[in-house]
Amino acid sequence: MIKNPKVIEETEISIEDYPICPLSQSKNITEETEVSLLDYWQIIRKRWTLILAILLLSAVSTGIVTFLKPDIFEATVTLMPMEGSSSNLASFIPDSFRPMIDSSMLNGLGGKSNTQKLINILECRTLCEDVARQLNLSTVFSEDPAVPIEWPDTIRGLQGMLTVKDNRQGLVTISVLNTDPALAASIANTYTACLQKFLQENALSLTKKNRLFIEEQLSEYKKKLNDAEEKLTEFQIQKKIVSVDAQAKAAIDAFADIKAQIINKTVELGVAKNFATSNNPEIIRLVEGLRELEKQLNIMEKKQKNMSPSSFPSFEEVPELGVAYMRLKREAGIVEKVYEMLTQQLILARIQEAREELSFQIIDEGIPPDKKIRPRRALSVLLAGVIGLLIGVFLVFFMESIKPTKELL
Predict the structure, then answer these.
(1) Which of 23, 163, 228, 299 could form a disulfide with 175 if both were Cys (CB 3.0 to 4.6 A apart)?
(2) Do 313 and 235 form a contact (C-beta atoms < 8 A)?
(3) Average pLDDT, stretch 248-276?
(4) Can you name the CATH fold of 73-203+360-364?
(5) Residue 44 predicted with pLDDT over 50
């Protein structure tokens, strides 16, 4: 079968339509690449003196500058913030009150917050001023001892020397940089001394004020309790009274409970007013609770004889001798309950104060360092030489690149 000649002509493919890169052209590309790299090397060799001059200039100038800079020494003090422990806090609690105290209140005394507090105090301006004043740094920092520098400049200079860090292992490091190693160590050690003094003088925190207030109230009610017990005992001896009936005793106990709660709320209100205003929700809650208890007390004192049998009898129902005895016993019961409540509050206040107490232990004292930390002259010269070499090579290639432009002009 004979094919159509037109179809054969249309399907023929010409070799010229797909040119093939000759082998000689591929070799020329490789040679051009090799020549260009060789040209770069030739450029560097041609201007090696310029590159060397820039390298030496950079290294020598850096060496001169670092040589003229004074040596800087670093003195370091290491502190360990003290952590409160549950065993120490438990010693505050009498055996009779241990069931009333939640054991969770004795836990969670982490030292991390104390660490951050110490760092913040060490970086504060007040402590910096104490150190500068104690070492007379205005004169020490001055070039002319007869003319002290300005106080703000002294503080800024001291703060610039100080670095306080948490090493993430429960320790705080105080680092001081100075050209005089002895002065650097002295400043670091003075910081720890001023820190201890600051903590002692400013330890009157809010929790401590609350604890002192409760202790004052507790001491007062302890005297009242002794007086009330002595009066009751003396009355029993004089009147030869052994006891009263159960209903009278119930009335006394109920009245004593209400009275003790009123006094306890009054103490809580006095403590809360140390840190809150009258518009504070906690103050409003305590005031409303106090009013409610006072209403209950007034109702109890004014009870009439026609009250339901399940209620406590009024004090007028008790014989005259029993009334006098009940009043004395009631007063003693009130004071005793208030004394117990204040004792419990004092324990909780001591626990809270121990939570917020700041103290530390010196692990490493500052000593005059025997080696400088900067300037690192050899490293600086080496880096300057490398940078000078790179700048020189770049400058040489730049000069070579603009050379054909100048020839054309």
Answers:
(1) 163
(2) no
(3) 73
(4) Bacterial polysaccharide co-polymerase-like (3.30.1890)
(5) yes
